[in-house]
Design a protein that fits this description.
mainly alpha; globular; disordered N terminus
Length: 244
């Protein structure tokens, strides 16, 4: 079942389950851009650890934008939620690990707020609908989500432990709040997904509630785990310093 005529997302019309695996996105400009990003960032890596992080990030980008998962995001808002979470909570920190530790202008506090505002902005129904109606706006959405998340994760790496933990917990809270709002909403808010979920056995509101649950539980959980890992690393360093 396809999207209504007015919605032409970058990844194409919403696929039915039977046609999903035929929906690879082999856009030559996309492939060229991904190759260019990979080459440019590879030149900045210095260690095998950084190179592995970069390769993992690029593999995930291929899944998100080239594999049939791209088309699935046209059908299901819940798939779009996974897409945005992978970009901001997995790809972005992997890219941050691939790059040298360096202070980001503005610091962790500014980028915590900027990234939160960016995330909420693109999930406002009118703005989201614009992104699924125009390829340029779609790519602005993807680029701004990824780059503000990358800046946040780089700022966290360069920040004192207290600052990094606060940034991650604040991001966890805002992610969980948005997820909770979508989980308990009784109204389908996203017009591009009024029809697509039906072929997948979901009503639009069920799809939206599932998207909210994804943001609320695993989404917020990524940031909680990262904050706990940061605290554990700091505690281990303190223990070693006291033992020395």
């Amino acid at each position: 079942m396809n999207q209504p005529t007015g919605w032409i997302p970058y990844c194409g019309a919403a696929p039915a389950p039977a046609e999903l695996w035929a929906r690879w996105n082999l856009d030559p400009w996309l492939l060229l851009a991904l190759a260019g990003v990979a080459i440019a960032l590879w030149r900045l890596t210095r260690t095998p650890h950084q190179q592995r992080a970069l390769l993992a990030a690029m593999a995930l980008l291929l899944i998100l934008f080239v594999s049939p998962f791209c088309a699935l995001t046209s059908a299901l808002f819940s798939a779009r939620a996974v897409h945005h979470l992978v970009l901001t909570a997995i790809v972005a920190p992997l890219l941050a690990l691939a790059l040298p530790v360096r202070r980001v202008p503005g610091g962790w506090a500014a980028w915590t707020g900027i990234h939160a505002a960016t995330f909420w902005l693109w999930h406002a129904p009118p703005v989201y609908e614009a992104a699924l109606s125009n390829d340029a706006i779609y790519w602005l959405m993807q680029a701004s989500l990824t780059l503000t998340a990358l800046a946040l994760w780089r700022a966290v790496r360069a920040a004192p432990v207290t600052g990094g933990v606060f940034a991650l917990l604040a991001t966890m809270v805002q992610m969980g709040l948005l997820g909770a709002l979508l989980s308990f909403s009784g109204t389908a808010l996203y017009a591009p997904h009024y029809i697509g979920p039906i072929a997948w056995g979901l009503s639009p509101i069920e799809d939206q509630n599932l998207a909210g649950l994804i943001m609320w539980v695993p989404g917020a959980g990524f940031y909680l785990v990262a904050a706990l890992m940061l605290m554990a690393r700091w505690f281990s360093q303190e223990q070693k310093a006291l033992a020395a």
